[in-house]
Amino acid sequence: MSLLLPLSLAFIMFSMGLALVVSDFLRVFTQPRAMLFGLCSQMLVLPSVAFILAYLWSLPPALAVGLIVLAASPGGITSNLLTQVAGGDSALSVSLTAVTSLAGVITLPVLVNLGLHWFSGTSELVVLSVGNMVVGLVLISTLPLVLGMGLRYYRPTWAAKIQSGARKLALLLFVLIVVATFMGQWGSIDAHFASAGPAVILLNLTTMGLAFFGSWVLRLGRRQGIAIGLECGLQNAAMGIFVAGTLLADSEMVIPSIIYALVMNISAAAVILVNKEPAQDFLLSR
Predict the structure, then answer these.
(1) Which of 18, 33, 74, 156 is spaced 20 to 30 Å from 44 by Cα?
(2) Residue 199 pLDDT level (bands cut at 50, 70, 90)
(3) Which of the listed ranges 58-67, 237-246, 269-278 does the model predict with the highest average pLDDT?
């Protein structure tokens, strides 16, 4: 598992890169309101809500930091697909995933170290240096993402042939990561679900609710609101598991990411159900 987890995450990020082009990073200039609000929601509001919930719920230090790790992770691999199923703005979703995935190599270590400093108290949590975490994230996240984008740019025919299969394999690997971690940490999950579960569920519902409400206030439109809401709600739980379990080497910190991986799919299904007409059109067209 110690080797399969980083390799699986690297492949997941590579498969995401196959679907990205440089223009995905430039949409902030062509759709400034939607992109800026989406980025603020995911990179500022989401971690802020996580800090507030961890404090109000008086979570044990490891669970509190685990919640911060999760909130600091970029959008998940399923967000783009489910945005399309729900009738959301797929291009906006892809762009938000692209920007947060690259920015995460800096923002994630900073937020995690802030969480370690804030919640460690008298515990024995070890603060990981930003440099070490950046190196790990570059190798496992940024480099595979850039390689996928490079393959799409220089060999578009090859990339088009393997993109669908790579996405399916990436989704399977994501499920296997969650299931394997869930089984390995079942005792800890069972012991800490009562304390961590409500905070994790509230994190998901609150951030998605704020994203939808903010989109309505800014008059961004239904499709853009769906994209931003799902992008905030569907975090890269595999990344959270990797950072907590491998880089921080704390099995208890993994718990929020595992719980969230289950919760986020339920809330995403609810969004799709509310937008059942676009979802039906998508499914019938496949």
Answers:
(1) 18
(2) very high
(3) 58-67
Best CA proximity match to 121, nearest among 55, 177, 69: 55
CA-CA distance, 52 to 49, in Å (whole number)?
5
Q: With bands split at pLDDT 50, 70 and 90, how would you rate the model's confidence at 121?
A: low
- pTM over cut 0.70: yes
AA identity, residue 252 = E
Domain boundaries, the chain: 4-285
For residues 74 and 99, what is the distance between their CA atoms, to the nearest angstrom? 9
Question: Rounded distance, CA 130 to CA 117, Å?
Answer: 13
On the question of pLDDT at 143 being above 60, the answer is: yes
Q: How far apart are CA 175 and CA 261, in angstroms?
A: 9
Average pLDDT over residues 105-124: 79
Determine the Cα–Cα distance for residues 57 and 200; give it in Å rounded to an integer.
11
Q: Which residue has the tokens 């939808």?
A: 212
User: Quick check: 27 pLDDT over 80?
Assistant: no
CA distance 112 to 93: 24
Count of CB atoms within 10 A of residue 274's CB? 11
Secondary structure letter of residue 251 according to DSSP: G
Q: Which two tokens stand for residue 95?
A: 């762009």
CATH T-level assignment (fold) for domain 4-285: Na+/H+ antiporter like fold (1.20.1530)
